[in-house]
Fold this protein.
Amino acid sequence: MKLNYPNLCSPITIGNVTFRNRMFSAPMSGAEITSDCCIGRSSTAFYELRAKGGAANVTVSEVMVDPDTDGSHSFHLVDTNEGSIPSFTITADAIKRHGAIPSLELSHSGQSVRAYTKTKERQEAPWQWGPSSFIRRDGVQSRELSVAQIQTIVRKYGETAALAKRCGYEMIMVHAGHGWLLNQFFSPDTNHRTDQYGGSLENRVRFCIEVLQAIREAVGQGFPIELRISGDEFFEGGYHLEEAVEIAKLVEPYIDLLHVSAGSYMQGFGRTHPSMFLPHGVNVYLAAEIKKHVSVPVATLGGLNDPAQMEEIIASGQADVIYMARALLADHELPRKVMANREEDIVRCLRCFTCMAERVNTSTRRCAVNPMIGRELDGMEILPARVKRRVLVVGAGPAGLKAAQTAAIRGHQVILCEKEPEVGGILREEQAIPFKYEMYQLGLTLERLCRQEGVEFRMNTLVTPEYVEQEAPDALIVAVGSSPIVPPIPGLKGDNVILVNSYYLEQDRVKDTVVVLGGGLAGCETAIHLARQGKQVALVEMRPELAPDANCRHRPILLEEIRKQGIRVCTGHKGLRVTSEGVITENPAGQEALIPGETVICALGQRSNTTAANALRGTAPYVAVVGDAWKVANITAAIYQGYHAALDI
């Protein structure tokens, strides 16, 4: 078979280990960390899923090597805990049995320990330790590690690496990026030492080199050691690409693979994990430049999910390995699909940060478009139905499409009716916003996957109780969605007003000055898009804050983008009426104020199509109402509800 992406699919040998392709699964904390910091069964299944999906390597993240100076609740691999070695061994076996190479990320948080927990009390629970005495930007104090403590941590890296090899891991990744401890020693922002571990670059890299030497002694020659660094910290006072090149040259003799990431969690989460507002592969140039100066293979990553782009990166010599994290949550079978020339079937990551936010909120994992993530033990396989049923799905939005696909995979006869001529539902409106195009693309991909499974599509078809009676389905899944809220504000139905849902159809009507009425997630993202087009944009919101419906990872990045784009923000403003000049509001002082704009975008939210949904209840032996028809929420809820409604048939 002629491969569409021969470079991406080609094997690579690192140390004495050969990997089946160049698509590696980047470190991601597991779905379940036990109270004693072992790998829970859910986490084992979480990592195994990517191995089964064809990734060449699966990196288990992250093992904190010295709990005495690192209070993070992460994995600990120690021989003093009876459950530790078995849990790590079982996980390595689960990865290996699918042909992937298991790797273990060794790390130390340093002064960044607990930096991302929600409560101040948890942040301050342990003492933070770092290269220097330092007050973090959030006000938390860290202490300076002594030379004796540094040497203990070096020894712990070696001991943990030896245990990892004993448990069956075939590569070690050392985390020296993103503001973790080794990176803190690299960075002039956090390393103010005057001894052998501070000052010159050689001194600042000394700790890392000692760690790498200890690991090499523990695992032996030929065992691959990978080092992850930030190619640029991207903040004032940190180091930049030129110095990263020198760091790479200093560590090169001690490693087999150099993994070039970017940024620092504390000061640029949206660059380390490129947000939807940044181009895919925005950090690749860092790896490409560093690769010019070293002879070991170089890995890159950062919002990559397009096989054509990844192929070009490898083919052009910018990097030797592609790492993916979120892309392999969205579609764990991405590597298998690439290897089988099925790239059109890939479900693309939306870069919505649902996965990252879930980690903060519940210490588990979730993906907006893949309902198995973090719940792999609850349904890693969609099993065939014992009795094949006739299933009617009403509505071809994300919930209906996912329900139809899942039911068809189970072997049911599935008919999908949609009253519009196109699939996608509310996702259709995203096609006009470049940084949200993958949401529109999701509808098209799900349609394609449904058709492959034999789903019968009936477009331009309004389903009534009489229609259901005529079709006589055994199961009815109602996914009739929602409609935009248009309150009785005078002028809101004027010629200068465009509903946000219809923007993709009427974008040519938008003038140079715009008022977006409604500061929820949809309104904010539309405002950003219009500002990027060069429009003068004002964002009007009745509540005291913008985008309360955005998740905790996406929202700060969203608000920063609003600031960067120079959007005028009018919170606490209640819309009173719309005129040809803009929107008249009641401001926080209770006074009328004109927010000028030639065009007004109405983004005041959605309301469930409850009447349509209720009319179909009781018309079949099994009826499930899913997605926005049940409760207006988000893509995640729609996908999950559609998926499970189909499993319940």
Summary: The radius of gyration is 26 Å. DSSP finds 22 helices and 28 strands in the chain.
